[in-house]
Protein: Chorismate synthase
Amino acid sequence: MAAPVSQPPVAARASTRFLPRGIGALPESAPASLRFSVGRRHRAARLEVKASGNVFGNYFQVATYGESHGGGVGCVISGCPPRIPLTEADMQVELDRRDDHWYTNSRFVPNTDQRGGDYSEMAKAYRPSHADATYDFKYGVRAVQGGGRSSARETIGRVAAGALAKKILKLKSGVEIFAFVSKVHQVVLPEDAVDYETVTLEQIESNIVRCPDPEYAEKMIAAIDKVRVRGDSIGGVVTCIARNVPRGIGSPVFDKLEAELAKAMLSLPASKGFEIGSGFAGTDFTGSEHNDEFYMDEAGNVRTRTNRSGGVQGGISNGEIIYFKVAFKPTATIGKKQNTVSREHEDVELLARGRHDPCVVPRAVPMVESMAALVLMDQLMAHIAQCEMFPLNLALQEPIGSASSASELAPSLS
Structure:
């Protein structure tokens, strides 16, 4: 979405109790960034409004740019560990999985498949369930042509960055991330149809809907074809698994691993729901049924007999397989007339034209994998930064100043 020439003013219509003492309500014309004096010493403070939302991550940061039907899309990665062997093919494999054949190998992707003319008839009215209405309400700018920054084409940068994150995770810890379609409309893949321990990329990519079960893949394809010929659309669910994730990834309270995963998944276009482990179905269990009991395996590792927690407990990975699901709504642009409202506040009918997916769920699979990889990469780097200075050592758990802790601490700092 192109930025407007002048930013909309910051309106402070909320109660003044949210401002520092002595500061009145901000005027309608207040700029997005302003200075004011606070207290008797007139200390300078700064109130800033951050609304870009173009950067993801803290340690492994990804900034995407470009928009649907614009000149190109891409990403900038900051914080990448050095000396990582990387080729164009590493990223191209993942980009090709998005099934848009207009990619090139350059970091800036020319958007040669854009068809801005398809949207000329939709420029005067808000498209139901699209972002152009809310963009207009907030910024005074409409992303009519394909959704602008809200378009799924923005995710090209995410997938490219995710390819790098996947490679680093594999090299560092042997982490494997796979996603597949587990539901299309009313066709639901049974929970026991896929073995999370053994499912492979080849099984997932063996059909166009990316469902590892051939029988249910055919049912999903039939469901999509049924609505396609009617000019309609349907949604579904993507299941994602992450194997070999080290224990200890994540943090308590606000930065829980599942919270970071949820944010990442719900940032994807058309996503509408997230659940991890047993999710909402966990409400059907009692505590004794739902708890994952611990045991010692043959190698002397602490494991859980079940995995209803989804590999995360207390916001921190426990070493089991992480698995979660992401729900995607039906494609908003359909080939049927819909009632809507124009920018002049008139009731009108709208018929979308152009090429649109009857179901976006299969194409969301590599996007889900990429966002999972970005989260795990960022969290792994945070874990290393925080915890590897003093690796877990039982002797160091004694109070600082004791003889044993002092003798153990000195070598670790040398």
